[in-house]
Design goal:
Radius of gyration: 23 Å
Membrane topology: Single-pass membrane protein
Largest sheet: 7 strands, mixed
CATH superfamily of the largest domain: Nonribosomal peptide synthetase, condensation domain
CATH class of the largest domain: Alpha Beta
Subcellular location: Cell membrane; Endoplasmic reticulum membrane
Number of strands: 17
InterPro entries: O-acyltransferase_WSD1-like, O-acyltransferase_WSD1_C, O-acyltransferase_WSD1_N
Structural class: alpha+beta
CATH topology of the largest domain: Chloramphenicol Acetyltransferase
Mean pLDDT: 84
Shape: globular
Low-confidence stretches: 1-25, 194-203
Strand content: 15-25%
CATH architecture of the largest domain: 2-Layer Sandwich
Number of helices: 13
Pathway: Glycerolipid metabolism; triacylglycerol biosynthesis; Lipid metabolism
Number of domains: 2
Helix content: 25-40%
Oligomer: single chain
Order of helices and strands: EHHEHEEEHHEEHEHEHHEHEEHHEEEEEH
Distance between the termini: 27 Å
Pfam family, one: WS_DGAT_C
Length: about 500
């Protein structure tokens, strides 16, 4: 649902910093949202796994970081508790020692002989058992010169969520890259194009056009009221059905297993164009299908294996399974603005500006694979016609302002623990890019420290789509099986489109 945006006019224009402004920024207080991520039950770390098509030169990375990322104040500042202001936290600029942030681990050659892919996977898994040190800026970069099945080397960027939301952090990371074919150009991110609306209610002139607008406003108003009430009910008592993928109390403190699978973005585009939908519709439909198949297997683990159908399966009826969808509410800063900020020492608005959308998944088996897509599209279209994200953001801000961090943290924690999972779909570069001269094979973002036992991220890059899972293995012991189900579901949906002749050249 990347198309949902709050068009608020508070985005500051990019402007050259004066000496006075830079001095004032030396001890800027942390925003309430940033402080929230220092609560024990919200100590969230963003992970960006980058596959490189060449071996990574650590010295080149260090030299380039000095002139780019370190110019961003968040990446060169400590988060310090101000005892004079009742323990509030503030950003304090400091000199960065890159040797403490760039990690090049010693590699056990014996483990590489067994399985290089498993070595990298276990390394990142062990990384999720640790937290970033507050005595230095809260980020690090791990460089693994290990040849895997899909890359010559792997870089793992780890950033504390208090530095910014996932959208802004990934945008900043991409601002440090350049097109491999044109080393002086930053990546091109496709914009959100509105689907043509063929409904006659918006094309009819005169009185009917007036009624159409009134009806549209009434639907927006009603949907928003319903969604806000559901949000409040979820905060207080409304829980998702207990399923094999729902996290247990304390799941946020467990390490995560990160697994990912790269599929063809062209397959998603084929379905999108054939059914006049969006990539997000297709991604959510395939996710709904994959989760239904996976849960049917988990619920039927003690039953005889038989062919499951829409009417005959192992799934309980009326499963309530919702995802918290995090929505970026700021007008997109853009990669160009972030690149200029680092290159020309300018200023741009930063931080955490995200709202919640509670997105229901219909968990059931369908004989027709395209039903999953149609249901997902209907759900998303309904959510787009609501101001839920704006109001949930406002409610969270009011809770922070009037009741403090502890209460706000408790509210946010209850919302997440009363739902089942987290989902995101990020749009990536259209062309191949290089990270400081190292051509990138794939980008797989995720996070750990969240109460959900399952997080699913879709990340596009050139003609690829990477599906990334962050799982608590005590809840989901077979994440590769879930990946298989997601991939197979997408294939069945694409095959159904092709067989029925929906796609036209």
């Amino acid at each position: 649902m990347a198309s949902i945006r709050w068009r608020k006019p508070s985005l500051k224009p990019i402007q050259t910093k004066t000496k006075l402004a830079m001095e004032a920024a030396e001890e800027e207080p942390l925003s309430p949202s940033a402080r929230l991520f220092h609560e024990p039950n919200f100590n969230v770390h963003v992970i960006a796994i980058m596959g490189s098509k060449s071996r990574i030169n650590p010295q080149v990375i260090k030299e380039k970081l000095v002139h780019t990322l370190l110019k961003h104040p968040r990446f060169s500042s400590l988060q310090v508790v101000d005892e004079e202001k009742n323990g509030e936290m503030k950003w304090v600029r400091t000199k960065v020692d890159l040797d403490k942030h760039i990690v090049v681990p010693q590699v056990d050659e014996q483990k590489l002989k067994e399985s290089p892919d498993k070595f990298v996977e276990n390394y990142i898994h062990n990384l999720s058992k640790t937290t970033l040190d507050k005595s230095k800026p809260m980020w690090d970069l791990h460089l693994l010169n290990v040849k895997t099945s899909d890359a010559e080397a792997v870089g793992v960027f780890r950033i504390h969520h208090s530095l910014g939301d996932g959208t802004s952090l990934i945008s900043l990371l991409l601002a440090c890259t350049r097109q491999t074919a044109h080393p002086d150009k930053i990546p091109t991110i496709p914009g959100n194009k509105k689907r043509p609306n063929n409904s006659s209610e918006y094309t009819t002139k005169g009185l009917w056009q007036y009624f159409a607008k009134v009806w549209s406003f009434m639907r927006l108003f009603w949907n928003t009221i319903v969604d806000v009430l559901m949000f409040m009910a979820t905060t207080m008592f409304l829980k998702d059905t207990s399923t094999p993928i729902k996290g247990k109390p304390g799941s946020e403190f467990n390490p995560r297993r990160f697994v990912y699978r790269t599929v063809s973005l062209d397959d998603l585009k084929l379905v999108k164009n054939a059914l006049n939908m969006t990539i997000n519709d297709v991604a959510l439909g395939a996710t709904q299908a994959g989760l239904s198949v996976y849960l049917n297997r988990r619920f039927g683990v003690s039953k005889k294996d038989k062919r499951a159908t829409e009417k005959n399966n192992n799934l309980p009826k009326n499963i309530r399974l919702r995802s918290t969808l995090l929505v970026n509410l700021r007008p997109s800063t853009g990669i160009q603005a972030l690149a200029d900020m680092m290159d020309k020492d300018t200023e741009v608005k930063w931080g955490n500006s995200i709202g919640f959308v509670l997105l229901p998944f219909k968990i059931s088996l369908r004989d027709d694979p395209l039903d999953y897509i149609r249901e997902a599209k209907a759900t998303i279209d309904r959510k787009k016609n609501s101001l839920e994200a704006i109001y949930t953001f406002s409610i969270s801000e009011l809770a922070l302002r009037f009741f403090g961090i502890k209460t706000s943290s408790s509210i946010s924690h209850r919302i997440i623990t009363n739902t089942t999972m987290c989902f995101s779909n990020l749009v990536g570069p259209q062309e191949e890019i290089g990270f400081y001269g190292h051509p990138m094979a794939y980008l797989a973002p995720s996070s750990y420290g969240q109460p959900h036992a399952l997080m699913i991220n879709f990340q596009s890059y050139t003609n690829k789509m990477t599906i990334v899972l962050s799982v608590d293995e005590s809840v989901i012991p077979d994440p590769y099986q879930l990946l298989d189900d997601l991939e197979q579901s997408l294939k069945l949906i694409k095959d159904a489109v092709v067989e029925r002749g929906f796609c036209h050249e």
